[in-house]
Amino acid sequence: MCFSATASFSAGIVLAVIGVASIKKIQHRSQTMFALIPFIFAIQQFSEGLLWLSIPNEKWSCLQTSITYFYLIIAQIIWAVWVPVAILLLEKEQTRKQMQRILVAIGMFVSMYLTYCLFHFSIRSEIDCYHIAYIQTYPEDFRVMGGLLYIIATILPPFFSHIRRMWWLGVMVLISYIVTTVFYESYLVSVWCFFASVISLSVYLILSEIKISHREEIYLKRAVGRN
């Protein structure tokens, strides 16, 4: 994230609180992965806070490398699969499920490729202009296509969901990606993850919406039963 270790740790705390609130909204185990999204973002922000502290300290160079890998594993490998799977598990309509499964497959492909790159090419992190830059020497041939497939896997799933307010999540993540690409291209991994983590509040609101819809369904069924 941009700014400082304090900002990253503060974001992590806020996200953890949102995570607790989201988990309390769970009504079925199929909602668990979706509800855990703020928690994973919290872990990600805490790890980057540690990175802010370790980069200037040469004695912590080993810790810096480990945290860099940890952060990128979440940002590039876990999210590419977690987001589409979490939304697929919430889906009830068969036609939409088919599309969600395709997006999960795309996410798995991107995740596997980025896993290969992460452990076969050199990476490092450095502080640059109040941001953390992740320097990755991945093959250029796949960089554009890989980035596009990653976006498809992480941004499109909300737009194919039957849940009424799920599209909020897709729109806000898309806007955050566009803003980051335009203004913070050199720090895309870090800044976009921060913006996306802020959007975790949407997860709580969507789970609240699901809970309300569930109550309405129960009420209608009971009303029909009485008639």
TrEMBL record:
The keyword Membrane applies. Keywords: Membrane, Transmembrane, Transmembrane helix. InterPro entries: DUF6629. The chain crosses the membrane at residues 6-23, 35-55, 67-90, 102-122, 142-160, 167-183, 189-207. It holds the Pfam family DUF6629. This is Histidine kinase N-terminal 7TM region domain-containing protein. It comes from Flavobacterium cheongpyeongense. The lineage of its organism: Bacteria, Pseudomonadati, Bacteroidota, Flavobacteriia, Flavobacteriales.
